[in-house]
Amino acid sequence: MMKPLLSFEHISCYFSTSFGELQAVRDVSLDLYEGEIFGLIGETGSGKSVLGLTALQLLPANARVTGEVRFENKSLLQLSEKEMRHVRGKKIALIPQNPASSLNPVLKIRTQLREAVRHQKELKDKDGYLASWLQAVSFSYPIKLLQSYPFQLSGGMKQRILTIMGAAGQPKLLIADEPTKGLDAPARHDVVEALRNVCRQTGTTLLVITHDLHVAQILCDRIGVMYAGRLVESNDTDSLFATPGHPYTEALLLARPTAGMKPMAGDSPNLLQVPSGCAFHPRCSYASEMCVEQLPPWTEYGQKKYARCFLHAPST
């Protein structure tokens, strides 16, 4: 049995607010394996980004995390800030979702990319190394681009630069948080190809956090679906899009333009007042009294197909 590269074990994340304690992630367990591309999808506020940031200890000061995050079978949540600095960028790298605020506007691209590889002492020609990365993600004039400033680049170009900043340090795991947010169709295509090329050439494991279902479908090997802080489904990509195992996943897919844009009933719940039982039951056409009263178990209903729904529970 292959050992996972990264494991979230019963992770829950809480935030102290003026209205009380808000639970953004609820008892999530999830494994990522070496060399795979795993997608996390769900509506805004479902807990996708919060879960990803727990692996790097990048949550704000008002956050509290319970459970365990293991990377290469080592506990990450037990590491000090000094120890985490040897993990971030070197072993696990983050591609943030906002290139406009993630790149320094007064520094050339060359300076910012060189920072990403400064720990690689064996590199003699860092500019040549970075130019090869730029070519790998479809930049035609890499040397010229190294001399550019961020304001001279489009949104898609800046997002690809962030991809290189994450990948050039040769981490074992990349976490891409909404990598195509706010981009037009051609730019989204370029960013997806950049991520795919990076993983293909390096064998890097990729965790893609996205609300873009099309991106998840064409890029990911497996997908997890989150709703109101819980993981409600995990499946290989083809199976999930062909025969979704959870009513929420089904509703997400029906809301796509290519599926007729059928709107989902109701609204996402307030995380300070999450419904009892299955949190999706107020919006679910399959809901029964059991769904209101009890939390459905995490059930394997086929080969590597999992869902948190009474439709698949052994007792039904």
Automatic annotation (TrEMBL):
A Gene Ontology term for the protein's cellular component: plasma membrane
PROSITE patterns tied to this protein: ABC_TRANSPORTER_2
Enzyme's top EC category: translocase
Keyword Transmembrane helix applies: no
EC number: 7.2.2.11
Family: Belongs to the ABC transporter superfamily.
Subunit-level organization: The complex is composed of two ATP-binding proteins (NikD and NikE), two transmembrane proteins (NikB and NikC) and a solute-binding protein (NikA).
Record protein name field: Nickel import system ATP-binding protein NikD
Source organism per UniProt: Aneurinibacillus aneurinilyticus ATCC 12856
